[in-house]
Amino acid sequence: MFPLFWYRFQEKEQLIINIVLKPLVEAYKIAKKDERMISYDENTITRDIVWYLKNNTSISSLYQKRTIAIIMRPKEHITIDEICEPDIKFIINTLLWMEIEAKRIYKEHNNWSTLEYLSEEDGIGRFLSGKYSKNEDHGGMIGYIQKGNLSEIISDIKSGLTNCNCKKYSDIDVMDNSMSSVHSRKNNDDIIIYHLFFYFS
């Protein structure tokens, strides 16, 4: 792993890919080895992935040196001011603040539903309303796909983004089963959402 000063010279998107997204994928690949993942609930999957992030990935040493903070909310936490907390936060000094929401893709009426992932109240809509990443122009979503057809589910999500003020989306070339999308927020600012799809079946 490169020392932190090396990342100061990277563009923000490259920083997000190298220090957030790729380590998340590393943690997912370890977690996937546990066959019980296909039946775990969202919080359990997130807990395991965060544990591997902190202990078995390319950023673990930065976390252990307290250069990076990785914060998990195992349950939705609402303060007295009714501020929702995302599932995972990455805080890297003054370089980056990244909030990530994870949603399980589950079976509903014999179909693998993406409704919660695309939900205005519980999913990507929290970034668009400003509940998450209010002061940032980026955020992240993870889809925990426990069964079903991976390509069809990703296609359904891409189609559903058109109802989420999406201006455009594109695959992230250096990573499988990932993409980024640009959305208009309610305050008329744009936000980029980075999507990762973790397939456990």
State the gist of this model.
The chain has 201 residues and is α+β, with helices and mostly antiparallel strands. Helix content is 30%, strand content 28%. Helix 2 packs across helix 3 (42-56).
What does this structure look like?
- With 201 residues, the protein is α+β, with helices and mostly antiparallel strands.
- It has one domain (4-199).
- It has six helices and eight strands, in the order H-H-H-H-E-E-E-E-H-E-H-E-E-E.
- The protein has helices spanning 4-7, 12-31, 42-56, 60-64, 125-129, 150-160; strands at residues 69-72, 88-92, 96-108, 111-113, 138-145, 166-171, 178-184, 190-199.
- Strands 1, 2, 3, 4, 5, 6, 7 and 8 form an eight-stranded mixed β-sheet that branches.
- A hairpin with a 5-residue loop joins strand 7 and strand 8.
- Helix 2 (12-31) crosses helix 3 (42-56).
- The protein is globular and about 45 Å long.
- It starts with a helix and ends with a strand.
- The model is unreliable at 76-81 (pLDDT under 50).
